[in-house]
Each structure stands twice: as C-alpha cells, then as structure tokens.
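Much of the work behind modern protein science is quiet bookkeeping, done one molecule at a time. The protein below has been through that process, and both of its lines are reproduced in full.
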Amino acid sequence: MRSALLLAAVLAVGQAEASAHEPAPALSGDWRGSLSPTPGVSIPLVLHVSEADGQSNATVDSPAQHAFGLAVASVTRNAGEIRFVLSAPKVDYVATLSADGQTLSGKWTQGTASLPLVMTRTAAIAPPPPRRPQTPAPPYPYRSEEVAYDNLAGHAHLAGTLTMPAGAGPFPAVLLITGSGLQDRDETVFGHKPFLVWADTLTRRGIAVLRVDDRQTGGSTGEVRNATTLDFAGDVAAGVAFLRSRHDIDPLRIGLMGHSEGAIIAPLVAARDPAIGFIVMLAGSGEPGEALMLHQKRLIETASGLAPAVVEQSGLRMKRLYDAVKDAPDQASADAALRETWRSLASKDGRPGTDVPPQLQVVASPWMRWFIRHDPQPALSAVHCPVLAVGGSKDLQVPVDTNLPAIKAALRANPDATVIELAGLNHMLQTAQTGQVTEYAQIEETIAPIAQATVGDWIVAHTRR
C-alpha cells in the first residue's frame, strides 16, 4: 500500500551554516553512525552521498539488518538543511554538519522514538551484495521482449517486459500489478526482485507474463502527485488492452495478479471488465482502508516492542488525522485540516505551533484520502471470474485474520473462489520468523516455494484450454 503499508520515508539532515565568504562543506562521501534504541543494543547505519553538477544522490545501508543500497529519491540543501527522501522506512533525521565537514550530529526520529545519532565521515565502504539465490539469471528457456504502450485516458506511458514461453502460442497471460509506492517492473525491494521471480516461475510453466514499471519509474511516465489507486487501475486496464492486441496472446485467458495494493487494483479492473480470465490476490486486503492502516500500525508497533499504552495512543492520534482529511473536498482543504489537527494534537503534548512532520504529510495526499475511504468489498462482490487469494500467517501489513475472511465473505457468490492462508509467510510471501518489515532484507529467500507452487498450480489449472 502506498503509505505506511507503502513504507514511505522522509529523512532530513541539516547542515551547519557556512561563512558568508566560504562555500558549504561538501557532503559527498561515506558516513557511519549507530543508533542505540536500548542500552547495549547498537544498530550501525551507513550513508553514501555523491555530488555532481550541483546534484546530490544518496543511499543508506543498515548492515545488521542486511539492507544495502536503500535508494534515496532526492537530496536537497536549502537554508542550512539537507533533506534526503527515501522510500523506506519512515524516518526523520535532522542534524548539523560540523564546520570541518567531518561530522553530522542530530536526532533520528522513527515512529514515536527519537534517538541521538552522530555520523562521521569515513573511508569508502563497499557493501556486500545481498545473497538472493532465487533471482533468475540467463540463459532462459523463454523469450523476453521490451514493450511499451499508453494509457491515453490517464496520460501515462508504460514500459515493461513481456516474457513469452517457447513456441507459437497463443498463450495464456498474466499481468503483474505492483504493491504500494512507485516500483520498477521487478517490484525491487531490499535487493529482492519478486516480480522477476514470479515472471520466471510462471513463464517456465507456459504462461506469458507482463510486468511493468510504475509511473515515473524506469521507462514509464505519468502524473503521480495527484494520482490515486483508481488512476493506477487505469494503467492496468491499458496493459490488458495491450495484451489483447497481440496475436500470440489468447484474449480469453488473460489474468491479473496483484501484490498488496496491486491486489486491490485487480478486483477493481475485473469488476469493470467481464472478459478478464482470472485474478490472483497476493497479500490483498478485504477490510476498509482506514481499518487496515490502523490494524497494520498497531501490529507493527507492537512487534517493535512499544508499550501497549503507547501503541493505543499512537493509533488514536493517527485515526484523528485520517478522519480530519478523508472527506476534504480538495487538496487545500485537506492540507489545512491536517495542519490544524496536528497542531491541536501537538498542543496537547505541550508543543504548540508544531508543523506537520514531513513523513506525515502523505496523510493529506489524494492517494491516501482515496485509500482510507475505500472499501474493497463491493468490487470483490462484482468479480465473477475465478479468484485465488493468498495470504501469509505472519503478514503484519495485511493481517490474514481479518482480511482473508473478509475476502472470502465478499466472494461468497463466486463459484470459483479460493482463499488460502499459508503458514509462516510474511507480507512478501517469504518464509519468516517474525513478519516484521525489518526482516524482509535479512531473508535470502524472495518467494517461498509453497507460494510459488500454490499460485503456479492454480494458474496452470485455470488456463488450460
């Protein structure tokens, strides 16, 4: 999902003011520091920064969590501040850069915790590549084709890869739909490439697979700032039209397979298009968006060790923010409502006039306002093609105890609907110990074999002539 579930993050770093006659110290290089959430516990962090032509780029490593090369979307220096915007996790780090340019000193704020963090310039550190044994490598026993098409209604140009089994066809096909956040065609996260693995798995079994870059990612373009899940559903519909235009694809055997938010999009498209052959929901939701987000928040904070009273208070505060913005008629009204509600909450905490933290500004976005209002039940009830919904028992982002029963209830009139809980799997459908987001990078497995077999067998069975 494209918010907390989407793992969005903002990392802000401030720099010391330079003399009016001297340029600010360069930030480029590698920086090392450690967080200490509890006595005796140390979490090393490494920040890599490069500068060229007035532009800065950065990545972050958390070696103890086996997370390397976490991409920083943008780096800005303005009025003594340096801001790094990441996709994960949600963090605010504000610091000053020493006059000699060797030390960043400040506080790292994540969730309700605020920890001191000092980072010092260090010699270049080359992170080891994460071990991902399931990532396929050529030669492949199938063909790969770079493709592109347009969503004319949504003014988006989509680029992707179509993998085709050997032979003449026409073949059944699956269009993969990414989860929250702007992701590439492989749904790359923490060194894993789940959609590359799914494409390889299914194409080897005779299914053509189309995977596509999200808007403003890779080779795709399109408006993002004001886009909602409905806009992304339009991109998926354009992908279906593209597949139907090809002579080597069977138009009666085209299905949709979505992960997380993608599993919300698949029923939206199938409910409007009765010619969709089937849909597969991976870690998809059946409960309304606001309830889902609050449920997810409570589980993740509890698993992180926060006290029950803190978790409860945090949920109540977030609900007030959601309720303030969800029915706003326009963006200006949403921004104003979020600002007013946040300042009211901050005032009660003895911090009057406090501005909305950057990582919470997404709450007023068009995407979030649509999402927290959305109930997936009507679309699911309107789907008449075969449906497979799969969830992991250790999923903390879309918990199966509430979502799989809700999906099953919405599909009760569908004669070919299968809902399966897979024991021991997390939101990424990896074999997990805790299900926490921080564990995703530590697990070498990209997709559990039981998930691959369950989904692959079902798709093959439902695409036989």
